[in-house]
Design a protein that fits this description.
One of its GO terms (cellular component) is cytosol. Pfam families: Rrf2. By secondary structure, the protein is mostly helical. The protein has a single domain, classed as Orthogonal Bundle (Arc Repressor Mutant, subunit A), CATH 1.10.10. 53% of the residues lie in helices and 6% in strands. It has a two-stranded antiparallel ribbon with strand order 1-2. Helix 1 crosses helix 4 and helix 2 crosses helix 3. The protein is elongated, with a radius of gyration of 19 Å.
Length: 144
């Protein structure tokens, strides 16, 4: 199982916005060069981050990207929810077309659901405890 790269790219976007503010005009092209990806992909994710209220995008010559909240108020869970919307609030999907008369098939959802929910709760809790500021602090340590 693997969460796609959308999440890490979204974090990359927000880190660039904060690290380079005041030093460079932070645009989708600027971030795309840092992430080594296409600016169209960056713009798509920026749209999702903007819709979630995490960034503000100013277009035009004087434009750029800014955070809508202080970094200590943006959790990894906020970023995850902006980029990877979970259908029906469930991270794990359980197949639903099992044979009801089968002892396994008839009970698979009831059997797995509590375990999957526990794993999801642990992940969400972990992501909620880490903020963008935590990552910025770690980045400062790595750069020194």
């Amino acid at each position: 199982m693997q969460i796609g790269t959308k999440f890490s790219i979204a974090i990359h976007i927000l880190l660039c916005v904060e690290v380079f503010k005041g030093e460079y005009k932070v645009t989708s092209d600027f971030i795309a060069a840092s992430a080594k990806t296409n600016a169209v992909i960056i713009r798509k994710f920026m749209g999702l981050l903007n819709k979630a209220g995490l960034i503000e995008i100013a277009r035009g010559k004087g434009g750029g990207i800014t955070l809508m909240k202080p970094p200590e108020q943006i959790t990894l869970y906020d970023i995850y929810c902006a980029i990877e919307p979970v259908e029906n609030d469930s991270l794990f999907k359980i197949h639903k077309n099992s044979t009801p008369q089968c002892p396994v098939g008839g009970n698979i959802i009831t059997l797995l659901d509590p375990y999957f929910q526990k794993a999801q709760n642990a992940m969400e809790s972990n992501l909620t405890q880490c903020t963008l500021q935590n990552l910025l602090d770690d980045l400062t340590t790595l750069r020194s």
